[in-house]
């Protein structure tokens, strides 16, 4: 008997009825709707679940005290002074979100060509790491490694004659990773897409005795239009000159994503990431199937903004769209999601119980 999708094909041909108790009933042996007839039945056959363990919550930092500043293009997301970030870390803990990620808005006066503020051991990110770890050592903290929040030109690396320099940038990224790790960061997440940075950072961490600091590599990061609101949030939107296509990936490619991921694993990445999320679910699936590594996905600012804006206009049920978009990542094979929806989704998951 030929089997396809779990049923003998021949069974479909068999006519079982000459008469039926139900008028107009179709002669169907198989009725997939039976398994969807009630919530309890749907729960029994559900293949994928989202839990609060799947969430990483990115927070934006700003200088000052007791300050919260709305990010215009990300309704519901604020830039936070360090004391407020500590409060949100507490909220994350209470919501059982395992990890938060920190991104600084850097005042234009502190930005320069080289992104020097990135390696300042007392920069906003390091201050926040220390403050959060002091009060809540149990929460995981992820720090991004790249120069874009700190450079006057908004690029992730050093620039010369309009070219983003690879090897020179990597040397600076190692120093950036070290100041963050020394401040107490648990996961270093290079998002710069320079070649060879994972190996160099791993070596730098190990040499400093920071053997347990993990690396989550933004391994397949695409040059994407969906980062627009994030650049607003960190203050790079106005300053960015040109685009990032000489270092971030071409959105047409997926084989290349596998090569990038393979390299980062070989260089010592503990976890890998695909970014953005929803437009690249196929890449998430391929990466997970190919490498069976802890695989994360970043639901980026533009994905958040699309759902939030449509919901605010009454065009979408925002909560349902949020949960559906997050579950899609699990279905595609992701082990976790960086999402600005994290606290909202966690609240919903906890009330659902
Ligand atoms: N390196 C972190 C990002 O670039 C985030 C992008 C986004 O949320 O749009
Ligand atoms: Mg790479």
Please name the defining characteristics of this protein:
binds 5-azanyl-4-oxidanylidene-pentanoic acid, two-stranded antiparallel ribbon, lyase, heme biosynthesis, ALAD_AS, alpha/beta, binds magnesium ion, Aldolase_TIM, 11 helices, 14 strands, porphobilinogen synthase activity
Provide structural commentary.
- This is Delta-aminolevulinic acid dehydratase.
- It catalyses: 2 5-aminolevulinate = porphobilinogen + 2 H2O + H(+).
- The chain has 353 residues and is α/β, with parallel strands linked by helices.
- The protein has helices at residues 39-45, 82-94, 124-135, 166-183, 197-207, 228-234, 255-266, 281-291, 301-312, 318-331, 342-352; strands spanning 3-4, 7-8, 55-61, 68-70, 78-80, 99-104, 140-145, 159-160, 163-164, 187-190, 214-221, 271-275, 295-299, 336-339.
- An 8-stranded parallel barrel has the order 3-6-7-10-11-12-13-14, surrounded by 9 helices. It has a two-stranded antiparallel ribbon with strand order 1-2. Strands 8-9 form a two-stranded antiparallel ribbon.
- Helix 4 crosses helix 5 (197-207), helix 7 (255-266) crosses helix 8 and helix 9 (301-312) packs antiparallel against helix 10.
- The radius of gyration is 23 Å and the shape is globular.
- The model has no long low-confidence stretch (mean pLDDT 95).
- The site of magnesium ion has 5 residues, from helix 7.
Topology (elements, then pairings):
Blueprint: E1 3-4, E2 7-8, H1 39-45, E3 55-61, E4 68-70, E5 78-80, H2 82-94, E6 99-104, H3 124-135, E7 140-145, E8 159-160, E9 163-164, H4 166-183, E10 187-190, H5 197-207, E11 214-221, H6 228-234, H7 255-266, E12 271-275, H8 281-291, E13 295-299, H9 301-312, H10 318-331, E14 336-339, H11 342-352
Parallel strand pairs: 3-5, 3-6, 3-14, 6-7, 7-10, 10-11, 11-12, 12-13, 13-14
Antiparallel strand pairs: 1-2, 4-5, 8-9
Helix pairs in contact: 2-3, 4-5, 7-8, 9-10
The protein binds 5-azanyl-4-oxidanylidene-pentanoic acid (FVT) and magnesium ion (MG).
Subunit structure: Homooctamer.
Catalytic activity: 2 5-aminolevulinate = porphobilinogen + 2 H2O + H(+)
EC number: 4.2.1.24
């Amino acid at each position: 008997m030929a089997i396809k999708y779990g049923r003998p094909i021949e069974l479909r041909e068999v006519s079982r009825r000459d008469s039926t108790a139900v008028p107009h009933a179709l002669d169907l042996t198989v009725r997939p709707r039976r398994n969807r007839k009630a919530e309890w039945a749907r729960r029994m056959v559900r293949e994928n679940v989202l839990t609060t363990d799947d969430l990483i919550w990115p927070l934006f930092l700003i200088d000052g005290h007791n300050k919260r500043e709305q990010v215009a293009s990300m309704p519901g997301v604020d830039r936070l002074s360090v004391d407020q970030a500590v409060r949100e870390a507490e909220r994350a803990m209470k919501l059982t979100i395992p990890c938060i990620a920190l991104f600084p808005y850097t005042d234009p006066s502190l930005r320069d060509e080289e992104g020097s503020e990135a390696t300042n051991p007392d920069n906003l990110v390091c201050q926040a790491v220390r403050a959060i770890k002091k009060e809540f050592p149990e929460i995981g903290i992820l720090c991004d490694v790249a120069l874009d929040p700190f450079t006057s030109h908004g690029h992730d690396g050093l620039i010369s004659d309009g070219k983003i320099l690879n090897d020179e940038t990597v040397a600076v990224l190692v120093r950036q990773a070290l100041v963050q790790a020394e401040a107490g960061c648990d996961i270093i997440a290079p998002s710069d897409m320079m070649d060879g940075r994972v190996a160099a950072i791993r070596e730098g961490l190990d040499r400093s005795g920071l053997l347990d600091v993990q690396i989550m590599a933004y391994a397949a990061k695409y040059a994407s239009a969906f980062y627009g609101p994030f650049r607003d949030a960190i203050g790079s939107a106005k300053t960015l000159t040109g685009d990032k296509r000489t270092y971030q990936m071409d959105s047409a490619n997926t084989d290349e994503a596998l090569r990038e991921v393979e390299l980062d694993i070989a260089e010592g990445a503990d976890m890998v990431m695909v970014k953005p999320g929803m437009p690249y679910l196929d890449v998430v699936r391929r990466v997970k199937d190919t490498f069976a590594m802890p695989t994360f996905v970043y639901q980026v600012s533009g994905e958040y903004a699309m759902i939030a804006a449509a919901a605010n206009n009454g065009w979408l049920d925002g909560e349902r769209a949020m949960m559906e978009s997050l579950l899609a990542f699990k279905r595609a094979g992701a082990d976790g999601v960086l999402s600005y929806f994290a606290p909202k989704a966690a609240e919903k998951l906890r009330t659902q119980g």
